[in-house]
Amino acid sequence: MAFTLSLLSVRSFSSVISLGEIKPLLLMSAAGTVLGVFILKLIPAELFQLCVGVAVLIACMGLMASGTPVSLHVRGLSWLAGLLSGLMNGALAIPGPPIIIYAMVTELDPIRSRALLMAFFLASSAFALIAYAVAGVIELQSVKYYLLSIPALVGGDWLGSRLFDRYGRSLYRKVALLALAALGVSITLRALL
Predict the structure, then answer these.
(1) CB burial class (10 A; 0-12, 13-18, 19+) of residue 147?
(2) Within 10 A of 142 (CB to CB), how many other CB atoms are there?
(3) What is the mean pLDDT of residues 9-29?
(4) Is 73 helix (H, G, I), strand (E, B) or coil?
(5) Mean of the pLDDT values across residues 33-59?
(6) Dihedral angle over CA of 71, 110, 96, 68, nearest 10
């Protein structure tokens, strides 16, 4: 679904973010995705989910408490964000939290931040599809669910784009933090239940 959504939106972000800008993120995400698929087969998914969920909630609280956002460019941060996103992509098919945190601390402009996320998700979802196909974990039922989700996916993309155009500058950070917190809670609860 993420791959399809990113393809639908490619025109909206391709002129804002270049491949060169996100190359370190993509290289480490590819490596992390492969490692994540192996983690999926080696350790209980619930343990990995619990660790990820708690880490996301801690990061979210830190971002909320930090107050006024400041652009933070630390050497190696893109490599770490790419690797962590890749690990989560391969093990849980959820690459979002680390890259959302990265985008929020490095790109203060909502348009550039959104474009970075969309470009990254296009590549990371392609990595995951390839890795899952090679590992043999894609099932026919998943394909059926994907096909059933297309109308909601297209409608949600259309609505989200309109809302971003209208409210993106003023509400982007608040919505991103809310989505990040919801992901953290969801991942943690899934691990515990």
Answers:
(1) exposed
(2) 11
(3) 84
(4) coil
(5) 82
(6) 40
pLDDT band per the 50, 70, 90 thresholds, residue 55 = confident
Domain boundaries, the chain: 2-9+19-192
Residue 60 is which amino acid?
C
Average pLDDT of the residues in 6-12: 80
Are 28 and 82 in contact, with CB atoms under 8 Å apart? yes
Place of tokens 């919801």: 182
Q: What angle do CA 192, 152, 33 make, to 5 degrees?
A: 50
**Rounded to an integer, what distance in angstroms lies between the CA atom of residue 80 and that of residue 82?**
5
Tens digits of residue pLDDT in 131-153? 778 878 778 888 898 899 999 98
Helix, strand, coil % over all residues of the chain, rounded to 5: 85, 0, 15
Using a pLDDT cut of 90, give the percent of the chain over it: 9
Q: What is the maximal distance between C-alpha atoms in the chain?
A: 47
Q: List, in order, residues 6 or more apart from 54 with CB less than 8 Å away.
A: 184, 188
- The whole-angstrom separation of Cα 172 and Cα 164 is 8
Q: Is 70 left (phi over 0), alpha (psi -120 to 50) or beta?
A: beta
Whether 114 contacts 14, CB under 8 Å? no
